[in-house]
Automatic annotation (TrEMBL):
Superkingdom assignment: Eukaryota
Membrane-protein topology: Multi-pass membrane protein
Record protein name field: Glutamate receptor Gr2
Regions of compositional bias (Low complexity) in chain numbering: 34-46
Annotated spans, Disordered: 1-55
CDD domains in UniProt: LFG_like
Length: 316
């Protein structure tokens, strides 16, 4: 076999890849991400990369410590509202703005219904005061009075205890309308036993106090929504005092009872108004509870009127 013949297999030195000298690498050697990790880094939001230049070679290393946290890490926390992410802060502002719009619509609806209820009550009072035939008829007809009292208690318990009646249409309108008619009838019968001047004075004082307390509840920074338990306790004391007044009669007892009742329901008016307002207050009614909110304010104003009427007038 001649010596210049080409070998059938390449030499080992030809299969071995050529490596650059070790001194051409920067220390430590660079780490290249896997293809899947590299694709995720390209899709994620990137900040301005910081680069470090090596003095011993032209290789540059990427500083991954400057990469921002992803949105998943922010939403995984228990409270995303405390995140400093600008997009989350913008979302929080939009949600608060939408909630304020819903709350304003809820307040307008409650006061619209309350205005209609008060107008119906004033109509019954005016009818029973200025029409003598109607006045004498309702004063002699005790059956209608007892029916109105029972109907009032049944309707108010149904609306307070059954959520479906308060929230589902048309049950809420039907029950609220029937309650307004029954309560207005009772107001008209009660007002028919007083002089016209005393009733008009009581209406004027009630309107002035209601307007002033409503403005106070809207503007004050004091939160009265946490005092519901104390007000309920005061209401129980007032009820017990009312039963005592049946057996203990006297002008001073009547004045004290009426003044205490007017004070308690004045505080209830502020309390229920702030429950309706919501916002920064401790407790708030849901916007779906517009029937309950209108019912609370209506009862506060009606009871305030009755106690003021008992103060300024004498029942015949």
């Amino acid at each position: 076999m001649s010596s210049d013949k080409t070998p059938l297999t390449p030499q080992y030195s030809q299969q071995q890849p050529s490596y650059p000298p070790p001194q051409q690498y920067a220390y430590p050697p660079p780490s290249y991400p896997a293809p899947q990790q590299q694709q995720q880094q390209q899709q994620a939001p990137q900040r301005e990369a910081s680069y470090m230049s090596s003095s011993s070679s032209d290789h540059q290393a990427y500083d991954i410590s400057a990469a921002p946290p992803s949105y998943a890490s922010a939403t995984a926390s228990s409270d995303v509202y405390h995140s400093n992410d600008p997009d989350l802060q913008e979302w929080k502002g939009i949600a608060a703005f939408d909630d304020s719009i819903v709350r304003r619509g809820f307040i307008r609806k409650v006061y619209s219904i309350l205005t209609l209820q008060l107008l119906v009550a004033l109509g019954f009072i005016a009818l029973f005061l200025f029409n003598s035939s109607v006045k004498h008829y309702v004063q002699r007809n005790q059956a209608m009075l007892i029916t109105a009292i029972i109907l009032t208690f049944v309707l108010i318990l149904a609306m307070a205890c059954v959520e479906k009646i308060r929230r589902q249409t048309p049950y809420n309108y039907i029950f609220l309308g029937l309650f307004t008619l029954a309560e207005s009838y009772l107001l008209g019968v009660t007002a028919s036993y007083y002089d016209v001047d005393a009733v008009l004075i009581a209406v004027g004082i009630t309107a002035f106090v209601t307007f002033g307390l409503t403005l106070f509840a809207f503007q004050t920074k004091w939160d009265f929504t946490g005092y519901g338990g104390y007000l309920f306790g005061a209401l129980l004391v007032l009820i017990c005092f009312g039963f005592m007044c049946i057996f203990i009669r006297g002008e001073i007892v009547r004045i004290v009872y009426a003044a205490l009742g007017a004070l308690i329901f004045s505080m209830y008016l502020v309390y229920d108004t702030q429950l309706m307002l919501g916002g920064t207050h401790k407790l708030a009614l849901s916007p779906e509870e517009w029937v309950f909110a209108a019912l609370n304010l209506y009862l506060d104003i009606i009871n305030l009127f009755l106690f003021i009427l008992s103060l300024v007038g004498n029942r015949r």
